[in-house]
Amino acid sequence: MNADLKKLLDIQSFDKHIADLELELRKIQQKEERILNVVEAKLSQISDVKEEIDELEKDLKFKGDLLEETIDNLNKLELKQNSISTEKQLQAVTTEIDIARTNKSVLEEKIESLKEQIEQKNKGLRELEDRHEQLKKTLKDYQERFSQRREEINSEIDKISKTKEELLPTIDTKILRKYEKINKWAKGTAIVPVEKEACYGCFMKLTPQVLTLLQDTDEIVYCPNCGRMLYLDEDSED
Ligand SMILES: [Zn+2]
Questions:
Q1: Cα(157) to centroid of ligand 1, in Å?
Q2: Which residues lie at CB < 5 A from ion ligand 1?
Q3: Which of 15, 54, 130, 200 lies 20 to 30 Å from 71 when distance is taken between CA atoms?
Q4: 3-170 has which fold?
């Protein structure tokens, strides 16, 4: 095989390796963002539930004060009832007492129901907080693994890039430029093997003349159809 082509084949595989590693980096980033979003969503659920509990607590406080007032009022009315002389006054006070008693029992029921709601909400809140803690832990574990893998990938990319940079100046400039030109559209398949007498880039059957040129010369041979650089796969050469 042409010596420059052999080097370009290495360059192509370095580029492919780098592209794969960069893709892995992007996937890691996406996965990390997904977990972060779940953690944040849980946090926002927690803050919603806390707000709901706050509202319920305020309502409870309001109704509790109202109940106290009602009880005070009821006590006063009951005292008043004992010191009343006329039938008419007695009737008026009795009606007031009835109304206050009804209010009292309605408020007591509402307070009971509010307390139950708050208890339920608090239970839900504790579950959410537990889940949030677990998720944070999961995130931390992932982030540790991710950052370790990121370091590995980056140092691997550095290593490959260095090797590539060392190899590049040793390749014939004209051939290198030609390769880069093809690679612009071929994106990682500028150099392809010949498989079953066809170009492995565009899959067009090659003429006997092209195949002979490949077998008998050390020149770089281009696919007459797509223009990619061709080489004979060592395994299928025989
Ligand atoms: Zn082709």
A1: 30
A2: 199, 201-202, 223, 225-226
A3: 54
A4: Helix Hairpins (1.10.287)
